[in-house]
Amino acid sequence: MFDEIHALKPFKDVANILSEKKDWPRLYDIQSLNNNKVPVAAAVYYEDMYVNFKLSKETASQIVGIRLWITNEFMHSGLRDDGSKVLDHLLGMLNGKKPLF
To answer: Which of 32, 45, 63, 66 has its CA 20 to 30 A from that of 5?
Structure first.
């Protein structure tokens, strides 16, 4: 990607350095996710070219009370493509106006 996309070319060296880093801290605090008290809704896109579907589902399964909207209606750029529709759907899931599936 850093060779093919002009806007990313200046970041190629940094991306390579970061990709070789081995001592990253944990990305999520699983205990905090397991003890969640805040209502959460999230969109998970089947064909997201940047986020692995299986990993998204695994991560979401750790968040108590999460409501997932699993869709192929949008790709990774759902908010950019039709942000009002995406947010309306997610907020509707939280307030009972949209189905959970």
So the answer is: 45
